[in-house]
Amino acid sequence: MKNEEFMSIVDKANIRSKSLLTKKAVEYGNTDDRFSQFYRISFIQEELPTQALTGMMMKHVTSVLDMAKDPLGHSQKMWQSKLDDLRNYAVLLEALVIDLKGFNKPQED
Q1: Do 83 and 63 meet the contact criterion of CB atoms below 8 Å apart?
Q2: Does the reported pTM lie above 0.70?
Q3: Closest CA to 34 of 22, 18, 45, 42
Q4: How far is residue 97's CA from residue 52's CA, in Å, rounded to a whole number?
Q5: Residues near 97 by Cβ (< 8 Å), separated by ≥ 6?
Q6: Tens digits of per-residue pLDDT, 23-42?
Q7: Do residues 100 and 49 touch, judged by C-beta distance below 8 A?
Q8: Residue 71 half-sphere exposure, CB side, CA atoms within 13 Å?
Q9: Residue 45 — φ and ψ, nearest 5°?
Q10: 40/52 Cα distance (integer angstroms)
Q11: Longest distance between any two alpha carbons in the chain, whole Å
Q12: DSSP conformation letters of the chain
């Protein structure tokens, strides 16, 4: 695969991911806190919010692992859907870690 084609795939994947993250924000956005569900789950399960998120992420990891056993047996649309979900969980995890680190900073008046 030539670099131009690869970069086109990257660009299209980023556009799909951003669109999906925006859509999901509306679906799950019952508060101003983008991570409220992960914080609630972490409280209920007595674990860190990052553990709550990665637990939910594992559903997507296992799905991709199953698909990887027969990569040609799945449509491009199915691959994109599963990988978009997995990619978005990685982005959510990165942002959640940043959010958690913000809680450890002293509050400015």
Answers
A1: no
A2: yes
A3: 22
A4: 12
A5: 50
A6: 888 776 666 788 888 999 99
A7: yes
A8: 2
A9: -90, 0
A10: 9
A11: 58
A12: --HHHHHHHHHHHHHHHHHHHHHHHHHH-SSS-TTHHHHHHHHHHTS-HHHHHHHHHHHHHHHHHHHHTSGGGS-HHHHHHHHHHHHHHHHHHHHHHHHHHHHTSPPP-
Which residue, chain included where needed, has tokens 């806190």? 33
Tens of pLDDT, residue by residue over 34-91, are 888 899 999 999 999 999 999 999 999 999 999 999 999 999 999 999 999 999 999 9
Confidence band, pLDDT 50/70/90 cuts, at residue 108:
low
Which tokens go with 11?
Answer: 């660009």
| pLDDT at position 107 over 70 | no
Domain locations in the chain as residue ranges? 3-103
